[in-house]
Amino acid sequence: MKKEDRETLLIVEDDIGLLTQLKWHFSTYHVITATRREEAINAIRLHEPSVMIQDLGIPPDADGVSEGFELLRQALHLSPHMKVIVMTGNDCNDNAIKAVNLGAYDFYSKPVEAQTLDLIVKRALHMYQIETKNREFQLLEPSLLEGLITADEHMLNVCKQIRKIAPTNVACLILGESGTGKEVLAKALHNLSLRSKYPFIAINCAALPENLFESELFGYEKGAFTGAVKSTLGKFELANKGTIFLDEIGEMPLLLQAKLLRFLQEKVIERLGGRDLIQLDTRIICATNRNLEQMMQEGTFREDLYYRIAEIQIDIPALRERNADKVLLARYLLKKYLREENFKSVSFSDDAIQSIEAHHWPGNIRELNNKIVRAIIMHEGKYIQPHDLGLKNSNVAVLNLKAVRQQAETQAIKSALIQHEYNISASAKALGITRPTLYDLMKKYHISTQEALSEIHQEIEIK
């Protein structure tokens, strides 16, 4: 088996004889060894082991446990999902219990009995693999709606809105900047509705020439114009009993706005060149990045149409306003493209994470998607750097110590919560604090516990 196909096991032991024996015994793994704390920390950064076996008594405190406990704390801070097995003396049960309380997976008392230790390592590795698959599964579908990836409080409220609106027939207007995912939400509305087994047809009003608008939307009869050799159904008829999504509704000409208004009022259309009224049952969802209220004042958008299409209005925040989602989406897109292209595993460097957080993202998710694709192609080594993403290093200097601490603690807490899917115990462990302390800090910095997300997930599971 190739080295890269084997699970990585880190062994930290200052007794060279025992270290050599353990390395030989676990030869089926990719074994990394260390004799001191600094070596072990460097090995964790470089090799990202799945399991670590460590002796508590390591230099320079080989006769004590202080250095071993410090290694345990630092190791779990760097790699909170890694399983740590602590080796202790026969009379050191208190230290073993303390190690487990600090986050160690299990402990083993010397002298070493190879078969027993082998069983503990296999069990730890099995647990690591199960947890990894579970995290990957949740990363693929961490939101409440198909195709939507979010942990942001505002977007989760949007998700709740969508779930309430979907079963009804009300007309919806989705407002948001370009690249924020308006069509994703429109599809979610359709998929959660009773119309989901019927067509969902999207039309980009900005991409249609004005002289083709009417024939594309409402269809035409044979002979209606030169080249009309047969009667053709329009998008509205094709979407009958389903949903039609009018993207960039603000670009629709005034003449066609009047015909759309008539359909919304009477649920009938008339094909171009035809005289028959055709009754339809089609739901309308509209979206735009334009200011329709300003357009109404300027006379370029009908006020009566606005109130028809905006029975319920959904506002999508820009990516720069979704602080919890920048890194979450970046990691999701990275994993998605690595899997699709069958590339080797790679992750973001700390500088890259900071650059993603600091960037303004004027192109929103579409821009982020492009940056990730670029980085996958351009990066070298195991980590994606800011220049691979086409971003600058984030070197924002804050001189106020209170502000520095608040900013650092807030970011660390949010990152830990996202990484551990808002599991408070796991997040507190990763941060090296107790659950009550984490709750106090979340309350202090007004960080949501995502109770709404948990409740809706429970509803989904019940259904």
Q: Radius of gyration from the CA trace?
A: 29 Å
Under the CATH scheme, which class of the largest domain?
Alpha Beta
CATH topology name of the largest domain, in short, is: Rossmann fold
Main sheet specs: 5 strands, parallel
CATH architecture of the largest domain: 3-Layer(aba) Sandwich
Class computed from helices, strands and strand pairing: alpha/beta
Fraction of residues in helix:
40-55%
Q: Average the pLDDT over all residues and give the rounded result.
A: 85
- The total tally of domains equals 3
Strand content is 5-15%
CATH superfamily of the largest domain: P-loop containing nucleotide triphosphate hydrolases
The unreliable regions are 451-463
- Summed up, the helix count is 20
Strand order of the largest sheet: 2-1-3-4-5
- The rough form would be described as elongated
Oligomer: single chain
First-to-last CA distance? 44 Å
Give me the count of strands.
14
Q: How would you describe this structure to a colleague?
A:
The protein is of the alpha/beta class and 463 residues long. The protein folds into three domains: 3-140, Rossmann fold (3-Layer(aba) Sandwich); 153-317, 3-Layer(aba) Sandwich (Rossmann fold); 321-457, Orthogonal Bundle (Helicase, Ruva Protein, domain 3). 48% of the residues lie in helices and 12% in strands. The chain contains 20 helices and 14 strands. It has helices spanning 16-25, 37-47, 66-78, 93-102, 114-140, 153-165, 182-191, 213-218, 235-238, 254-266, 292-298, 303-309, 326-341, 350-358, 364-378, 386-389, 401-419, 424-431, 435-444, 451-462, and strands at residues 8-12, 30-34, 51-55, 83-88, 106-109, 172-175, 200-204, 243-247, 268-269, 278-279, 283-288, 312-315, 347-348, 383-384. The strands form four sheets. The chain has a five-stranded parallel sheet, sandwiched between helices. The radius of gyration is 29 Å and the shape is elongated.
